[in-house]
Design a protein that fits this description.
alpha/beta, five-stranded parallel beta sheet, globular
Length: 469
């Protein structure tokens, strides 16, 4: 068969037609509740080869088209099946500078795997698990990173989260001398301070930092960069993320002790040990806070979600009933079910007020239920239901309600313009200030790790084009 790009479609010989995805090992529940080790384990070689043979190499390649990074999925899986693991890694890294993180943190079930042709009737191919296997094989091989001849140009990357690390790697690969400037004590940004070890052990992050050091990337930590700090560089990339976390208005919260933002909590501020914990936010970060509170020994955990619970609607008439949709529980929900025998969620609710003791310590929270409706513009509006208040015991509230852009002082420090949503304004990654570029969440707003990585990757291309004239 001739493909639209004039290539020849190669049919997979003797594919594995097993309907179920090859399971990877997971840390036993008893260990999960007492350790921050990664829950999901890497495929063995036998498991990886078995799963790789489930890929049909479909000519449609919907998996690649729906990957934010444009990963050449059928191609790298074909190399896995042939045992060419380093060739598979080169294909993966051609699209993703940070596959060790994306393979662990990407919601593949909502992206590449949800568009796998096998998922029409059976379970999708375990794309993320195969990517992780290949990355681990690459590190075991000790293969050196490839870089171009030095260009003599210097680039400062301000921020070392997913977008900053991606930009730094791509720029180093192109031969530029890169210095990453990080305000925190250690590099990694969100990957270090906002994602707990049960999803990403810090050894994996440190290994990536070491790989970048071997490529010639330098790291300066504990430094708050300004325009003056970086004035001698040929180009500057702002990759500072979104440090402006949303707050939730609560009566009585002004002087209460025991209310903390999610990133501060996940980085070690406050502990849930022996406390009744309320987590406001039902997204990934809220789930990470649930898992952390369990491991810290919380007395109870309630997760408040303002929006309605998402349910799948099935058509009454379905002449081709498909394989039942995957029911994916977040690891923290599984752990709550195991420890507390219940799902921690309360949907369509918010914390209206808090109560404190005589010295200001949090002792209770007033939760109110919300009804869902739409305004004249068909936007979802959540309205308080009168008389639905419920008082819950509470010694710690963690707010995981997302972010609303980078801190204002960043734009002021570098003299760059911002958008109406307080993000750094740009034209093709170039800001309003000469030689200063921006990428990641500080440019786009809050997003997934993979999207921040892609933004850093593409920003590096823009910087490289500018430096080469």
């Amino acid at each position: 068969m001739i493909m639209p790009d004039n290539s020849v479609f190669v049919k997979v010989e003797n594919p594995n037609m097993a309907p179920d995805r090859t399971k990877n090992q997971r840390l036993p529940m008893a260990e999960r509740l007492t350790t921050f080790q990664e829950v999901e384990q890497t495929y063995t070689e036998e498991e990886a080869l078995r799963e790789a043979s489930r890929c049909m190499g479909c000519p449609s390649r919907w998996c690649s088209k729906e990957c934010p990074a444009g990963m050449p999925v059928p191609e790298f899986i074909r190399e896995v099946r042939a045992g060419n693991y380093e060739a598979a890694y080169e294909l993966i890294s051609s699209a993703s500078p940070l596959p060790e993180f994306c393979s662990r943190l990407c919601p593949q079930e909502k992206q590449c795997q949800s568009n796998c042709s096998r998922a029409i009737r059976t379970e999708a191919v375990g794309i993320g698990r195969l990517e992780r296997f290949v990355v681990e094989r690459h590190y075991l091989s000790g293969a050196p990173a490839k870089t171009a001849a030095p260009t003599g140009k210097t680039v400062a990357v301000v921020g070392s989260g997913p977008s900053g690390l991606a930009a730094a790697q791509r720029l180093a690969e192109k031969g530029h001398r890169v210095v990453v400037i990080e305000a925190n004590e250690h590099p990694g940004g969100l990957l270090r301070y906002g994602i707990p070890g049960m999803k990403l052990e810090k050894d994996i992050l440190d290994r990536k930092i070491d790989a970048l050091l071997q490529m010639g990337v330098a790291f300066q930590t504990g430094i708050t960069a300004t325009a003056d700090t970086v004035k001698d560089y040929d180009a500057v990339v702002l990759a500072v993320g979104t440090g402006n976390a949303r707050s939730i208005p609560m009566e009585g919260a002004e002087n209460a002790r025991g209310i903390v933002k999610a990133v501060s909590y996940l980085s070690g501020e406050n502990t849930a040990e022996g406390k009744d914990v309320i987590i406001i936010g039902g997204g990934d970060t809220g789930n990470d806070c649930v898992g952390t509170a369990i491991r810290q020994g919380a007395k109870s955990i309630t997760q408040i979600e303002m929006l309605p619970q998402v349910t799948k609607v099935r058509h009454v008439i379905d002449p081709m009933p498909a394989h039942p949709a995957e029911k994916k529980f977040d690891a923290s929900q599984e752990e709550c079910l195991n420890k507390f025998l219940k799902d921690p969620h309360i949907y369509q609710a918010t914390v209206k007020a808090v109560e404190t003791d005589a010295v200001g310590n949090l002792v209770a929270a007033k939760v109110v239920r919300l009804s869902a409706g739409y305004d004249e513009s068909r936007r979802l509006v959540m309205t308080e239901i009168p008389g639905s208040e419920e008082v819950l015991p509470c010694g710690l509230i963690v707010i995981a309600a997302g972010f609303i852009g980078p801190e204002a002082k960043v734009a002021e420090a570098f003299g760059v313009e911002t958008t109406a949503r307080s993000n750094i304004a740009d034209q093709g990654y170039a800001t309003s200030a000469a030689k200063i570029f921006a990428c990641g969440d500080c440019r786009t707003g809050q997003s997934l790790v993979v999207k921040a990585m892609v933004d850093g990757r593409d920003c590096a291309e823009a910087v490289d084009a500018c430096l080469r004239g």
